[in-house]
UniProtKB/TrEMBL annotation:
Taxon lineage: Eukaryota, Sar, Alveolata, Ciliophora, Postciliodesmatophora
UniProt domain Ral GTPase-activating protein subunit alpha/beta N-terminal: residue ranges: 103-213
InterPro entries: ARM-type_fold, RALGAPB, RGPA/RALGAPB_N
Alphabetized PANTHER family for the sequence: RAL GTPASE-ACTIVATING PROTEIN SUBUNIT BETA
MF-aspect GO terms: GTPase activator activity
Protein name per Swiss-Prot or TrEMBL: Ral GTPase-activating protein subunit alpha/beta N-terminal domain-containing protein
Organism: Stentor coeruleus
A Pfam family this chain is assigned to: RALGAPB_N
Length: 1044
């Protein structure tokens, strides 16, 4: 033995140098091999700076022997495992503490690289694996305890150590405990947490692929940086058995998940751990999202050939669930809330709560993750878990941490639709609403957080009346008042405007709140700069829309007068956008005047209105806009609109004629029993159905009211008294006959609900039914029958047979007939048409959803019937319904104040339709889908037909019942096109229809639409009048009095 260290170093250096030059030829016996390895091993004890080249040569020699055993000495190959363990032991010496840290880092890095390559390319004996694991534990611990090389070598050492650990497939409990203690002991090193997260994240993806995805997809471990954007540094793809994946995933996950003593650990490491575990949980949630979005799920491989028998047994239940789901006997096989919380419940609860020592950043991350679990994983959540969640959220709100409360606002948006318990929790006034109010009152809060507050407020604000929570209404109203006048963010103000709109539309018997908020909206218009953003015009549209959305009986006429005067005061006299603003505000005023005609009793309003209606100089872009306003006002004020000519197959004895004059176009049609008289001019379309009463009928003059739900044909005795609206409750006490009438109406409506597909549904009346004064019944069989006997009498009474008028009324020539027909299809107001598709389950295909089902839920039937009167193709119907009736054979029609709606649905058809969903998407821009979820009330799966919708060409409204007649609304529309119905809003079934109608109107139409519709109609009438072939024509007298 050589005792002198320098002599030893010299011998080792000489041998290493000679061996590197001569190769294995100098090793002729096993003794030579042992002596050489002893010298090489000793070189790792030498000073790194002084003997750096010698050490690197030693590493090269050993590296060649490990990675290419065939090039090693023959004696080494004969006992390969033993010498491999010797080499690895010698490598470990280099990790001992040295003075020159920089050179030691280079040496250790090279050794770790060789070890990493060694485990990937060579097959190791079990004993070698055990030796390597123990040596790696020791080497890694040396690195983590050496502050001189810690920062430079931690990542490489930990990464190699975890790679060795994965490939070893060890089940040794002592080693696992040592491994766990070592990681926990060095928790303050960020690379420990980062590398652990990388490995567990990769294993989690592989486990989820085995359970829910492609089991042939290989395991990939992506090592990330501990800070910044999680940039990938290296990808490790070991080939390990599926059973080992499950075992190592769970054991590694529990290394930090089972530990709770983090109070005195460094905050940076704790934050990194919290974010790392959140990323692991989000892997589960991504599988949930993928399952909810996929149209089809498949089992990608055969269990028997892809994994071991034990692993196959573990996955049998999962694959049975897949098969049952395919056959419609089980739920969608994705991770559920209970299972995810079963793994992470304790960890989540330890971070939040009254006894938590974690920072705001950590608690906010935990709250965010918990919210995502509840909103994205398969429900339902158990009551105990919900209660624990509520307790922690309440505590965090009471602590008033800005960071944590911001996360609550941002992540609670998707929660109400998942569970009614969560919705009820949100509606508690001293919880979420109060927190939102405090947040909005804080001027230092970030704009993004304020927007989320408005979004969360929009979800439940309209429900305060439904649940009759006075304190909640007070908090919401106060927030509206304060921030409507102060909000400067365009997006926040946009959300606030439409939230107030929907809130007012759903108010019942809240006159004080309604009047105050209406004044607040008009007041905000005066302080809003039209040059900044588009909210000025949005607010005008909203105010005009509210005239037909609010409960008219609950608003004060005096408040309406004040609002109208305010609107008049906002009309500009000059400016860049003066014409645009003038037209919009005037149309808004006219909408309110039509809805509340009593405002014209105010002389000031009347004078201003007449003054502005006479203005002409201002109109350059919107020519004749004042004429449009006059026609619009005079046509609709105080009376519902007559919708124009209808289609019907009359008897063969029908006689018809078309006439024109300087003021309009009109037609007459007559059968043996009645006549139809229709006048069309700039004002609109007026229709009379006239029948002649004979002597034996004693008919008195009655108060005629147009009813769009059913025709009234029974006559009533005339009584000379003032007609007033009947109070049915008083009438029941006074007159039993009134009770019978009401009972008849009730029975009729009940039969409608029981079977809304039957044709005994009352049809709307599209004309005024007028019965002529009594006429003696004198029939002369020898007398010739004149044309238009009934119409002739009506035309005479209307003054059209006056001697001056006769000369200016002429029949239309044949070339004008097509134009006249087209006028019938043009309403004076916009028309919105859309289909409603009923889906029993989200998995329903496009063929099934277009068929006529035998079952529709009660809520859906109530919803569908609320869209108006049922019209069939073989009955009376407005002209604009014709193309829809040709496809669906029936439709629903309704008038909404300043637009018409036609709704079609396969649910209204008695037979299956002969076209698919593609045809509907082609013909209609907006599609409404009712997602019933009969197979799973807690399913979050996106309906399969959603994937057929092109978001560039179609807008989609998804309605999902969540219980207690509440509907969740999801919109696939641009944010700037939303209206009273906002995305993620929860709406009661009672208020859903009107909010949906006006939202679709806002989506499809604009201020310009009504003017454009009027202009088109006026031009068509002018064209109809201008067509004249120059031939001499008969006048109206010649036609009406000509003999048959």
């Amino acid at each position: 033995m050589i005792d002198n260290p320098e002599a030893r170093a010299l011998v080792a250096e000489s041998l290493v140098l000679g061996l590197s030059k001569q190769g294995n030829q100098s090793i002729r016996t096993e003794f030579h091999l042992s002596w050489a390895m002893e010298c090489i091993g000793y070189s790792f004890n030498l000073a790194p700076r002084k003997y750096f080249n010698t050490i690197m040569l030693s590493i090269t020699i050993y590296g060649n022997w490990l990675l290419n055993p065939t090039s090693a000495p023959g004696f080494l190959q004969m006992n390969l495992g033993f010498y491999q363990r010797e080499i690895l032991g010698h490598f470990s010496i280099a990790f001992s503490r040295q003075k020159d840290s920089l050179k030691q880092v280079e040496i250790c890095t090279e050794i770790l690289t060789i070890i990493g390559e060694f485990i990937r390319t060579q097959k190791l004996e079990l004993e070698t694996w055990m030796c390597l694991l123990k040596l790696q534990l020791k080497m890694t611990e040396e690195v983590l305890n050496n502050s001189r090389i810690l920062d430079l070598l931690s990542y490489k050492a930990l990464k190699t150590f975890l790679q060795v650990w994965l490939c070893s497939n060890t089940r040794d409990e002592y080693l696992w405990n040592t491994f766990k203690d070592m990681l926990y002991k060095n928790f303050d090193n960020l690379w420990v947490v980062a590398c652990w997260t990388s490995v567990v994240l990769g294993l989690t993806k592989r486990v989820l692929n085995l359970l829910y995805g492609n089991i042939d997809k290989p395991l990939k471990i992506k090592f990330y940086r501990p800070k910044g954007s999680y940039e990938t540094r290296e990808v490790f793809t070991p080939e390990i058995d599926s059973e080992q994946v499950f075992y190592f995933w769970y054991r590694l996950l529990m290394v930090f998940l089972n530990e709770n003593d983090y109070e005195f650990k460094p905050v940076d490491s704790r934050v990194l751990l919290v974010k790392g575990i959140s990323k692991i949980i989000f892997q589960f949630l991504e599988i949930c999202d993928a399952g909810n979005m996929n149209t089809e799920l498949e089992v990608h491989a055969n269990l028997n050939t892809s994994m071991s028998y034990r692993a196959s047994l573990c996955l049998q239940d999962c694959f049975k669930a897949y098969l049952n789901y395919f056959m419609g006997r089980d739920r969608l096989p994705i991770p559920n809330i209970t299972n995810i919380l079963g793994l992470f419940r304790s960890w989540l609860y330890s971070i939040t709560g009254s006894e938590s020592f974690y920072t705001d950043l950590e608690r906010s991350e935990a709250i965010k993750t918990h919210c995502h679990i509840l909103s994205r994983a398969q429900g339902p959540c158990s009551i105990p878990d919900l209660e624990q969640f509520f307790i922690r959220v309440l505590y965090e709100m009471q602590s008033k941490s800005t960071k944590v409360c911001s996360e609550i606002c941002m992540n609670f948006i998707n929660l109400p639709k998942t569970n009614l318990k969560i919705l009820e929790f949100i509606l508690k006034p001293d919880g979420i609403p109060l927190m939102i109010s405090d947040f909005l009152n804080d001027n230092l809060i970030e704009i993004t957080t304020r927007r989320y507050c408005y979004k969360l407020l929009s979800i439940f604000a309209n429900l305060s009346g439904t649940y009759n929570i006075k304190q909640l209404s007070s908090i919401i109203t106060d927030a509206f008042f304060k921030h409507l006048g102060e909000e400067k963010d365009n997006e926040g103000l946009y959300l606030l405007i439409w939230t107030i709109c929907s809130y007012l539309a759903c108010l019942d018997n809240e006159e004080e709140i309604l009047n105050a908020l209406l004044r607040g909206l008009t007041g905000r218009l005066g302080s809003l700069d039209e040059s900044i953003g588009n909210n000025f015009y949005v607010l005008i549209d909203c105010i005009g829309m509210l005239a037909n959305l609010i409960d008219k009986s609950a608003v004060s006429i005096e408040v309406i007068k004040i609002n109208v005067k305010n609107l008049i005061s906002f009309i500009p006299r000059r400016g860049k956008n003066a014409e645009e603003i003038f037209c919009r505000i005037m149309l808004c005023i006219v909408d309110w005047v039509i809805a509340f005609p009593m405002v014209l009793c105010d002389q000031e309003i009347k004078n201003y209105l007449l003054k502005y209606l006479q203005m002409k100089k201002i109109f350059d872009k919107y020519t004749q806009f004042n004429e449009f306003l006059k026609d619009y006002l005079f046509n609709y004020i105080g009376t519902p609109e007559c919708t124009g000519k209808w289609y019907k197959d009359y008897s063969k004895n029908k006689k018809s004629a078309l006439f024109y004059s300087d003021t309009g176009v009109f037609s007459s049609e007559e059968t043996e029993d009645y006549g139809i008289f229709n006048i069309k001019n700039h004002v609109g379309s007026f229709v009379w159905k006239v029948s002649q009463a004979e002597e034996d009928f004693q008919i008195k003059t009655t108060d005629i009211t147009l009813n769009l739900s059913e025709k009234i044909t029974t006559s009533q005795d005339y009584q000379e008294k003032t007609y007033t609206q009947i109070d049915f409750e008083d009438s029941l006490a006074e007159d039993f006959s009134s009770f019978l009438n009401i009972k008849h109406l009730y029975d009729k409506q009940q039969s409608l609900i029981n079977d809304f597909k039957e044709k005994n549904i009352p049809t709307p009346s599209f004309c005024k039914v007028i019965t002529n004064r009594k006429t003696p019944q004198i029939i002369n069989q020898n007398q010739h029958k004149a044309k238009f006997k009934i119409i002739r009498k009506l035309a005479s009474e209307l003054g059209y047979l006056d001697i001056q008028t006769i000369k200016s009324i002429f029949p239309l020539n044949e070339s004008s007939n097509p134009i006249f027909t087209n006028i019938d299809s043009e309403t004076l107001q916009p028309l919105i048409c859309f289909p409603i598709i009923y889906l029993p389950t989200p998995e329903t295909n496009d063929i099934t959803c277009m068929s006529s089902s035998v079952y529709y839920s009660e809520d859906f039937q109530d919803f569908l019937q609320s869209f108006g009167s049922r019209i069939f193709e073989d009955e009376d119907f407005p002209s604009f319904c014709k193309p829809h009736l040709e496809k669906f054979h029936s439709c629903l029609y309704k008038y909404h104040g300043f637009f018409h709606s036609v709704v079609v649905s396969p649910a209204l058809c008695k037979k299956n339709l002969d076209f698919g969903i593609e045809k509907i998407l082609e013909d209609y821009k907006v599609v409404v889908i009712w997602n019933e979820r009969c197979n799973d009330r807690f399913s979050s799966k996106v309906p399969n037909i959603f994937h057929k919708v092109d978001k560039k060409t179609n807008y989609t409204v998804l309605l999902t019942p969540i219980g207690k007649k509440l509907i969740n609304v999801n919109l696939e529309v641009p944010d700037e096109k939303q209206g009273p119905l906002l995305d993620n809003m929860i709406v009661s079934l009672k208020n859903l229809t009107k909010l949906l109608m006006f939202s679709i109107y806002n989506l499809e139409c604009s201020f310009f639409t009504r003017y454009k519709t009027w202009k088109k109609r006026v031009d068509m009438i002018k064209e109809c009048m201008s067509k004249d072939d120059g031939e001499k024509k008969d006048n109206i007298v010649d036609v009406l009095f000509m003999e048959a």
